[in-house]
Amino acid sequence: MRKKAGWILGILFLGAIIWGSQKLSHVVLSSAVLHQREQEGEYCLVLDAGHGGQDGGKIGVHREIERDINLQIVRKIQEQLEKEKQGKIQVILTREDENGLAEDNVKDLKERVRLINETRPDLVVSIHQNSYTDERVKGAQVFYHTASTEGKKVAELMQTSLYTLDETNHRQAKENQTYYLLKKTEVPVIIVECGFLSNPDEAEKLSSENYQDQVAEAVTKGILNYFGKGEN
């Protein structure tokens, strides 16, 4: 009986060693990849278009669908980054069409987190649209995790860049520790609420290609400033 118990414990111990070595090699590999990016002047950026599939997100006063606006802006950011010849920025999209990453909302968020943590990008920018009961409320705002120093840094840079969209916008980058994407990821993540779909004027602008271009330009500038490639 003792021999059998010892044999079982031996297998469990060996399994723990193998599991631990796999975890360690994953960490070492990730660090090596990050170091290589720094040496070569490369950056990896994940652009996350919020919502998708059956989850349309916020619905605007003119029946705008947040899911679609998010993706349209993300694609414009991607295009603008590709036009910028400043350094190498690898761009990864969490979704490339109207579909989400899973049918269930919780599974969708978990899949986004998994993708981000496995990719280990230098920055994640998640694009969303806001809404409120008072239709007078408006203005873009950036959120970051309370405990993230880098998150705060990039959020403040991004918020400053977004002021170009509206001189009357006095919103500040805001910390948050409850948003799933912020608290479950292991890299700098910011959530950019581009405006309020509950505000008639802002909702109309956010649906227009011209204003989406302006939003994408402001977000792109914020990204480049964080990576040290912008004009500030």
From TrEMBL:
Gene Ontology biological process terms, A to Z: peptidoglycan catabolic process
Matching Gene3D superfamilies: Zn-dependent exopeptidases
Protein name: N-acetylmuramoyl-L-alanine amidase CwlD
Entry's Gene Ontology cellular component terms: outer membrane-bounded periplasmic space
GO MF, one example: N-acetylmuramoyl-L-alanine amidase activity
Keywords noted in UniProt: Hydrolase
InterPro entries: MurNAc-LAA_cat, N-acetylmuramoyl_amidase_3
Keyword Hydrolase: yes
Occurrences of domain MurNAc-LAA (ranges): 113-224
Keyword Hydrolase (UniProt): yes
CDD domains cross-referenced by the UniProt entry: MurNAc-LAA
TM annotation in the entry: none
